[in-house]
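Review this chain:
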Amino acid sequence: MTDKIKLGVSSCLLGNPVRFDGGHKHHSFITGTLTQHFDLVAVCPEMAIGLGAPRPSLRLVGKPERPRVVSSKIPGLDVTDHLENYGKRVAGLLDEICGYIVKKDSPSCGMERVRVYVDGKMPQRSGVGVFTKSLMDAMPWLPVEEEGRLNDPVLRENFFERVFVCHRWQKLQKKGLTPASLVEFHAAHKYMLMSRSQQDYRRLGQMVARVGKEPLEQLAQSYFLALMDVLKQRASRKRQSNVLYHLLGYFKRQLQSQDKQELVGLIENYRQGQVPLVVPVTLMKYHLKSSSNRYLLGQHYFDPYPQGLSLRNSI
């Protein structure tokens, strides 16, 4: 990569003292590993709307489906509209970001299960931070994840896989979208999509088949939204194994019997949870080096992101 991909990040996760108590929530994976691969754009919506640090703590209050962000100590302090508007503003300013990592449990930034206080009852874990909801509504295709969920290897791999799909799409748009490039883009993500759902892969293929019959920009926008929604699904071991066996079919004539048995054995070991995904994929990539199959060589399934992220080592 000549230019690092832009990722939005809650400022407190980078170690900046912007929390309500004047502290931070430094996350070493973000400031360590991710800085090597991404341009991290720090955002703190509460600071941005002028609350300062330290500041009165906030919480979600009211109807779980549309709560207000208010202070529990200062009567009448309601910053809901300010946070919503700032989310829309950030969506307009950061149009080149390919993903966003937010602070969990925050009434402004939390992505899910944020406490909502309803009529003095026990809080419900059903809310979404108002800033983050506004951002996601404005950019429904954007990969968004909480820092706590990044500790789950499967969720972490899923998030960054989507980030790089988003980046490739943005590059395609800048280069100039054509009917042929849309078809090529879909084809290059075939096995990534099949690891989620063969049915959804076919459905997206049917969308692409309408190229030439519908306005290209309109079709491409609908396709990309559907693509990013499908990729939110977690790729199970069973589906990943099915993809690997499908790919193995391309090597029937190329591999000697012993090599084929070795690869089958590693796929089975992966399917049974004995080795991580990186093991059979690495061996398949080794055999792919001597292949002249341009279709396989163009599949992003084999290298969905930089190897330095080591995301497949734990799934």
Observations:
- Residues 237-314 form one domain.
- The chain has three domains: 5-151, 153-230, 237-314.
- The mean pLDDT is 95.
